[in-house]
Amino acid sequence: MAVEIESLFTSALGLATPWRVANVELNTAQKRIDFNITCEAKYLPCPLCNKADQSIHDRLERHWRHLDFFQYEAWLHAELPRIHCDDCDKTTQVEVPWAREGSGFTLLFEALALSLCQDLPVRQAAQLLRCNDKQLWRRIEHYVQAARKLDDMSGVKIAGIDETSLRKGQNYITVVHDLEKKRLLFACEGRDHKTVVDFASDLKAHGGKPEQIEHVCQDMSAAYAKGVSLALPNAQISYDRFHVVAMANEAMDEVRREETRTQPQSIKTALGGNDRKLLKSLAWGMRRNPDGWSTKQLNAMHWLQHSTLKSARAWRLKMALRTVYANAVKHNDEDLAKAELSSWLSWATRCRLEPFKKLATTLKQRLDGVVRGMLDNRSNAYVEAMNGLLQQAKRAARGFKTATNFIMIAYLCMSKLKHLPSNPLVPAVSPKYSVLVHRCL
Ligand SMILES: [Zn+2]
Predict the structure, then answer these.
(1) Are 34 and 129 within one domain?
(2) Would you say residue 1 has pLDDT above 60?
(3) 92 CA to centre of ligand 1 in angstroms
(4) How far from the centroid of its chain's Cα atoms is residue 54's Cα?
(5) Could you tell me the residue range of the domain that residue 298 belongs to?
(6) What are the two backbone dihedrals, phi and then psi, of residue 279, each rounded to the nearest 5 degrees?
(7) How many domains does the chain have?
């Protein structure tokens, strides 16, 4: 009976000559199952030069964590032969078919861990797998780098460049997306023009051509624009609508904050109350779309619109800019969009609200790119979706807030990498790794 169990597990683990399971130990108290694997050959080919029939020099004991066997934690153990080769005169350890050299996890365990890390924060995946999260971070880095080496960027024509930060206001990371394939192409630390130059080199290393990039969608950053002019010679810049609207919101908030600070009484009088909550309702009401107003916000906004407050003017300016953008999408007419934006810009310039005057100057300096961004519907929803995914990546990297951890997780979850190992618990496997699954399961 014992022999049958061992040969059963030899097949189940996908082992072939000279490897076989010599014995199996089940420890129900410790919820653990151990497979002792033996290498039966007396002579093996040299792992370095492949010279046949070389003698075994010595054996070193090694251990690997494998996929759980039912509720038991499964471990493989083997004494790995080292071969001394007559031909190249080197002593080399043989490779095993179930694990990468130097890894204490089997390939299938690593593949499962990687799949979990695409959906869960790394620390949580580590808890679920009962291993150390540092061990998972090392695997993520290894497999992401290996998969990125094989990544094909030859067809990229439209790129979106954006910045994000690990902590508010610091640790900036530049991210570059393929806006057509909707995936992350490149991420690096910093937000100066060199990040775009580095992206262009990375693109070339992956079969892409910087001169093929026709269009770049970005925020108002002069540094990115400089990088684009240096490294992506044929790219037209369009300034992303998401960022322009965010800047208008920021300008409006600045006016409101300043007015609340310097003239709290006029605001409270205009709103008809002395309540701090009213000021909060006003702040949220001004930021939100009117169809999302709560009763309190509706009330505050009603009084605001009947007042002569600067905040009321700022809100009207912001709403008018939103209408200019909505009309551009509706009519898709460049001349009309330019005319409407120009008339908004002259209003903003004359409005006597400093933050809006500044915004108008910024937009005027980049007028053509801003108009292109108004008519370009490629990026808007995508940029917002990407921001959501980036937030998810930040959560996954929590506890290891280094830029490298964040970048690796972002690649893992957002790059649609084709050469990552597949989840061994999901039936569909990529051709490359189906070989491994057959060998190891
Ligand atoms: Zn050799």
Answers:
(1) no
(2) no
(3) 8
(4) 48
(5) 241-372
(6) -65, -35
(7) 4
More confident residue, 434 or 284: 284
Where does 31-153 show beta strands of DSSP type E?
32-39, 43-44, 54-69, 72-84, 91-93
Distance 54 CA to ligand 1 centre (A): 8
288 with 358, same domain: the answer is yes
| pTM as predicted | 0.84
- In contact, 75 and 91? CB cutoff 8 Å: no
In the chain, the amino acid numbered 291 is D
Report the separation in Å between the CA atom of 98 and the middle of ligand 1, taken as the mean of its atom positions.
23
- Check whether residue 29 and residue 177 sit in a common domain: no
C-alpha 53 to ligand 1 mean position (Å): 10
- Which of the pair, 48 or 269, is modelled with greater confidence? 48
Residues 299 and 366 reside in one and the same domain: yes
47 CA to centre of ligand 1 in angstroms: 7
Residues 363, 257: one domain?
yes
The alpha carbon of 52 and the centre of ligand 1 are apart by a number of angstroms equal to: 9
Q: Which of 372, 404, 432 is the last residue of a domain?
A: 372
- Angle at the Cα of 156 from the Cα atoms of 151 and 159, rounded to 5 degrees: 110
**Are both 193 and 312 inside the same structural domain?**
no
| pLDDT tier for residue 425 given thresholds of 50, 70 and 90 | confident
Q: How many CB atoms lie within 10 A of CB 369?
A: 21
On whether both 251 and 289 belong to a single domain, the answer is yes
**High-pLDDT (> 90) share of the chain, %:** 73
Residue 382 near residue 177 (C-beta atoms within 8 A): yes
**Alpha helices, DSSP H, located in 130-221:** 133-149, 193-205
- The Å distance, Cα 438 to ligand 1 centre, comes to 29
**Separation of CA 42 and ligand 1 centre (Å):** 16
234 and 275 within one domain = no
**Structure tokens of 313?**
């003017």
